[in-house]
Specification:
Blueprint lengths: L1 H18 L4 H14 L6 H15 L3 H17 L4 H10 L2 H16 L6 H13 L4 H16 L2
Helix pairs in contact: 2-3, 2-4, 2-5, 2-6, 2-7, 3-6, 6-7, 6-8
InterPro entries: DjlA_N, TerB-like
Protein name: TerB family tellurite resistance protein
């Protein structure tokens, strides 16, 4: 009896582990959505850049991209926290991919021509959760700030 109960518990735990995985494109889109929502203004330039980033990174057709953008917005607006998305990215991507994601976040922050303190705060918090070093956080900010200023 105990053995069968133990086996059942293990089976349920394995099913939960297998189903808890979040698609990396969705996890990425949700975090990018968090950045563009940070200043409580959705600027068309930010949305356009986010679409472009996701389309290029994940090689998506327009229909799949529309679906991803909608789902990301819903997740970003409805989730209590975003740790499951952060955890998936942290656990399933390499360090350089996470640094590249932080750089994408900075590009979004500068897309509307101004860096908002709320956007910077959100990017800083996400970079820390993604275990991106402070030096890479600063370096990616400088790269994108220079790009935005045309330097």
């Amino acid at each position: 009896m105990m053995a069968s109960l133990k086996r059942w518990i293990n089976d349920v735990a394995q099913q939960e582990d297998a189903s808890s995985g979040v698609d990396l494109s969705l996890a990425t889109a949700v975090l990018l959505c968090e950045v563009i929502r940070a200043d409580y203004r959705l600027d068309d330039s930010e949305i356009h850049l986010m679409r472009s980033q996701l389309k290029e990174q994940f090689e998506l057709e327009d229909e799949a991209l529309d679906e991803l953008m909608t789902l990301a917005r819903e997740e970003a607006e409805g989730a209590v926290d975003h740790h499951r998305f952060v955890r998936e990215l942290r656990d399933r991507t390499g360090y350089q991919d996470r640094v590249a994601l932080v750089q994408q976040m900075w590009a979004l922050a500068f897309a509307d021509g101004e860096k908002d303190a709320l956007e910077e705060h959100r990017i800083r918090a996400l970079a820390e959760l993604l275990h991106v070093s402070h030096s890479d956080f600063v370096r990616t900010r400088i790269v994108e700030q220079n790009r935005a200023e045309g330097v």
